Amino acid sequence: MQLIKDLHVSITHERLLIHYPTGFRACSSALWGGGFVSAKWILNKYVDIDYLSDQPKEDIHAFLLDEKANPDYSIGMLTAAHVDEAGTAYIRGDQFEVCVIATSGVGNAARAGSVEQRYNAYSAGTINITIFVDGRMTDGAMVNGIITATEAKTIALSNMGVTDEKGRIATGTTTDAVVIAATNDEQRFLHIHPYAGSATELGHAIACAVIEATTQAITNERKRKNNRG
């Protein structure tokens, strides 16, 4: 796995932990640390497929403390996917580097607008995607990057033939999450990216990396299930 300088990634069966000591700006749909935040850690914690909690934020808080990550500077996600089957991708551009790490389990694949079951309590996310950008991005560009990443995830699912229970091409699972983080390092990068749509160099890199990492994660999941018989 090729990583951005000073980006530390630790993966076990129980969790995937990302640490960038100098901190980063992030935008995410994560339950803990969602929205726009400044952070140093991103936790993707494995929980059992039957996990259903009325207090998931308290659970994540405890998980972060177990990892000695400061909850005030952390983003936390839960997943029923095997995090040690994560897919990764790295792309370098003129004024950025992009590293994407995706965990995927498509047992509850769904097509947006067609999901019939609703949930009152929190169930664990299944496709969790982290996009880490060594570069400078505006807040608007980060939102744009999440849109691009979501489109790319759907392409990966389509390419892999992932369908919902009625055989329709899935757009995701019912509980996906995404994080985009940027170092905003002024010492290394002059250019500030105002956009990250698919027509931009950065957006194109995000899309390609998300497709590669998500495809790899789905492939790893299928191999495990096939080997299990």
Task: Give a brief outline of the structure.
This protein has 229 residues and is α+β, with helices and mostly antiparallel strands.
Give the helix/strand layout:
Layout: E1 8-11, E2 15-28, E3 35-46, E4 52-53, H1 56-66, E5 74-79, E6 87-93, E7 96-103, E8 109-110, E9 122-123, E10 128-134, E11 136-137, H2 139-159, E12 172-173, E13 177-182, E14 192-193, H3 201-228
Parallel strand pairs: 3-5, 10-13, 11-14
Antiparallel strand pairs: 1-2, 2-3, 2-13, 4-9, 6-7, 7-10, 8-12
Helix pairs in contact: 2-3
Task: Provide key terms for this protein.
229 residues, alpha+beta, L-amino peptidase D-ALA esterase/amidase, eight-stranded mixed beta sheet, 3 helices, 14 strands
Shape: globular
Number of E-state strands: 14
- Strand fraction: 25-35%
The chain-level structural class is alpha+beta
Largest sheet data = 8 strands, mixed
Quaternary structure annotation = single chain
Describe the protein.
The chain is of the alpha+beta class and 229 residues long. It has one domain: L-amino peptidase D-ALA esterase/amidase, CATH 3.60.70. The protein has three helices and 14 strands. A hairpin with a 2-residue loop joins β6 and β7. α2 runs parallel beside α3. The longest helix has 28 residues. It is globular. The two termini are 29 Å apart.
